Automatic annotation (TrEMBL):
Main location (coarse class): cytoplasm
Reactions catalysed according to its record: tRNA(His) + L-histidine + ATP = L-histidyl-tRNA(His) + AMP + diphosphate + H(+)
Superkingdom, natural source: Bacteria
Name the record gives this protein: Histidine--tRNA ligase
Pfam family, one: HGTP_anticodon
Keyword Zinc in annotation: no
HAMAP family (UniProt xref): His_tRNA_synth
Keyword RNA-binding: no
Oligomeric form and interacting partners: Homodimer.
Family statement drawn from the similarity comment of this UniProt entry: Belongs to the class-II aminoacyl-tRNA synthetase family.
Organism: Geothrix edaphica
Subcellular location: Cytoplasm
PANTHER family: HISTIDINE--TRNA LIGASE, MITOCHONDRIAL-RELATED, HISTIDYL-TRNA SYNTHETASE
Length: 413
């Protein structure tokens, strides 16, 4: 029997209902904030990710689904969506004016990763990117949107971790202090960190190795080394978040390791996720658009893992909210014909209803209703047809009553 490819899963039933509920909520909330959807292809040229996610990253080095297509192109199944959105925005000259451009996306991403709880090789991300505004206000707006989205979904504990990584100009001062700190206790750090301290010192701060994390105790804090404008920006964002009642804490080890990330970096951890605790991450990437060949346009964005969000919400709330449809069971051919007319009227009126079309035994239909959690069963037989009524059975209580046809519409609504 064929199985799905390792790390790739089928979505259906209760889990998919969470996905749908999350996606609907995202569209509603983001639409309300003036964000428009963008859909980019799953395949992009290799270069798009090499230049954006970075050649030194694990994603690009070890985790990409990369192949040569039949035309000899080096292509990649996207491991994330920001690079594709930026590529598209440049290609279609969407950033030509000075107007803010606001996009959100919902899509599957691919990374050849080691399997763990909440970690898949095909997973889903929802993200938002705003282009053209460099202000802390634009970040607060995006974070408020994210906060409303998660609040509407019923996520309970939400404390954003934030940090500022300054600018390429202000970072050397921090590097000098940090390299001196590192040198004084270098034997405590792993070999990867010894490489990172040369090529990409910020990455030492978020090394997954516990010994390295312990060795970092008392490290110089990057926010103490910010240039004046970045420090003001950071303070203003924090003031806005406080004012908006968006809980946050500062995390000086939260970094983005690449040069085009500037100033704000943030993430949201969830204690419900165990070791794989990152639910979302984002930040400012003012230098990326230009780096990918576009105009000099500032940008800010984030991505949240849909698989993990669904998992957390399922843990908190159990079933996703849904309208459980009523089930209409006609008995006999004459009733079946009439049932179609009734069902069509209900559907056209926007009422959720499942129509039993198997014919035959009532018992079988009732058993299905029981198994699938249907709350209300409508039974239409010859007696009901003659009397212009319908028999209604409430599954939870076993109670039975008779409704007029008019009542069916008002009561089911
Ligand atoms: P990143 O693009 O690595 O910053 O990831 C952003 C979010 O995507 C993470 O916080 C996770 O929620 C989610 N994510 C990343 N990788 C995976 C994966 N392999 N499986 C499931 N979710 C993932």
């Amino acid at each position: 029997m064929a199985q799905s490819v390792k790390g790739m899963r089928d979505l259906f039933g209760a889990e998919l209902r969470w996905f749908q509920h999350i996606e609907e909520t995202a569209r509603r909330v983001f639409g309300r904030h003036g964000y428009g959807e963008i859909r980019t292809p799953i395949l992009e040229e290799l270069d798009v990710f090499k230049r954006s996610v970075g050649e030194s990253s694990d994603i690009v080095n070890k985790e990409m689904y990369q192949f040569t297509d039949k035309g000899g192109r080096e292509v990649v199944m996207r491991p994330e969506n920001t690079a594709g959105v930026v590529r598209a925005a440049i290609q279609h000259k969407l950033l030509a004016s000075s107007d803010p451009v606001l996009f959100y996306y919902i899509g599957q991403q691919f990374r050849y990763e080691r399997m763990q709880t909440g970690r898949y090789r095909q997973f889903w991300q929802i993200g938002a990117e705003s282009f053209g505004v460099a202000s802390p206000e634009s970040e607060a707006e995006s974070l408020l949107m994210l906060h409303s989205f998660l609040k509407e979904l019923g996520l309970k504990q939400m404390v954003f971790s934030i940090n500022s990584v300054g600018t390429p100009e202000s970072r050397p001062a921090f590097y000098t202090a940090f390299r001196a700190f590192f040198a004084a206790r270098q034997e405590q750090f792993c070999s990867d960190c010894h490489r990172r301290i040369e090529s990409n010192p910020l990455r030492v701060l978020d090394c997954k190795n516990e010994t390295c994390q312990a060795a970092l105790e008392g490290h110089p804090v990057i926010t103490d080394y910010l240039d004046e404008a970045s420090a003001k920006h950071h303070a203003r964002l924090k003031a806005l978040l406080t004012d908006l009642d968006i809980p946050y804490e500062e995390n000086p080890r939260l970094v983005r390791g690449l040069d085009y990330y500037t100033r704000t970096a943030f993430e949201l951890l969830s204690s419900d996720l165990g070791a794989q605790s990152a639910l979302l991450g984002g930040g400012r990437y003012d230098l990326l658009v230009k780096h990918l060949g576009g105009p000099d346009v500032p940008a800010f964005g984030w991505a949240i893992g849909l698989d993990r969000l669904a998992m957390v919400l399922q843990q908190i709330h159990g079933e996703a909210p849904q309208v459980a449809p009523a089930l209409l069971i006609p008995l006999g051919e004459r009733a079946a014909t009439e049932a179609f007319k009734l069902a069509r009227g209900l559907w056209d009126a926007g009422i959720a209803l499942q129509l039993e079309t198997r014919g035959g035994a009532l018992k079988k239909a009732m058993a299905t209703a029981n198994r699938t959690g249907i709350q209300t069963v409508l039974i239409l037989g010859d007696g009901e047809l003659d009397g212009g009524t319908i028999t209604v059975k409430h599954m939870a209580t076993g109670e039975q009553e008779s409704w007029s046809m008019g009542e069916v519409f008002t009561r089911l609504k």
